[in-house]
Amino acid sequence: MKLHFHTFNVLFFTILLCCSTSVHSASDIHTLMEVAGITEQINELPKTMKAGFEQGLAQKNAPNKDALLKSVDQAILPSIIIEKTHTALKKALSKEDIKTLLTWYQSDLGKGLTAAENSASTIEASQTVANQLQTLLSNEKRVELAKKLDKAVGMTDTAVDIQLFTMESMFTAFSSMEDPSSSIDPSQYRARIEAMKPQMNAQMEPFIHATMVHTYRSFDDKSMDKYAAFLSQPAAQKLTTASIEGMKSGLKIVTQAWIKDIATIAKANQKNRNSP
User: What positions does the domain DUF2059 occupy (predicted)?
Assistant: First the structure.
C-alpha cells in the first residue's frame, strides 16, 4: 500500500522492523520499491515539507525567505531517504517475500491500485479530499472497507506519528531561525507535541478513511477484498513495516541537516541586521 504524505497527514508510519538472513540482489529491492510506488512517494517528500514550511513562513516576517525555502531543496534529499529505505527492506525481506510482493505489484490489479495511490499522494489530491470530506464519509460501505485497510496497515496511527515528527522538525527549524546562536533541543517540544496525539488521531482518522474512499473509488468490492487479503499477508506487513522504518531513518538525517542550514541562514540574516 502506498502511504500518503502531504500537508494534511505528513510522513511518512512507525512500525517495527522485521529481519531476515536470506540473501537477495539489490536490483530486486530497487524494482520492488519502484513497482510498489515507494520511490515515487519518497520523491514527493521535499515538495510536501516545502509546502508546510512555506505556510509557516507566511505567518512570520522572516527575511530572506527565498534562501530559507531553497534550503528544503538542498537538504531534504530523496536519495538519502531512498538509500535508508532500501537498506531496511534488504534486512527485512526474504527472497520468497520479494517474489510474493513482485507478483502482486506486477499484476494488473496491483499496477492499477498503485497508480491510483500515486495519483492520491499529491497536495492537490489532498485538497480534493478535504473539499469532499463529508460526501466521501457518507459512503458507509466504503468507509467500513477503509477501516479494514487502516487496521491492516496501521495507517492512521502511523500518519499521526509522522505528523508529530514533522511538527517537531518544524518547531526546531523555526526556533533555529529566531535564535540561531542557541543550541536547540528538540526534546523540549516532544512532550508538548505528544500530548496532542489523541486529538490528532481523532482528527486524522476520518481524513485517512475519506482519502481511501476517494483513492479506490474506481475499484469494485471484489478487487478491494483481494487487496485487503494481500495487505494481511506477512510479506506485505513486512514491506510496510520496513519501508516506513527506512523512511523515518532517512528523514531524521535530512531534517537534521536542514535545521543546520536554517540556523546558518538565520545567523547571516542576523549579522546583516546588526551591520552598520
Answer: 87-122
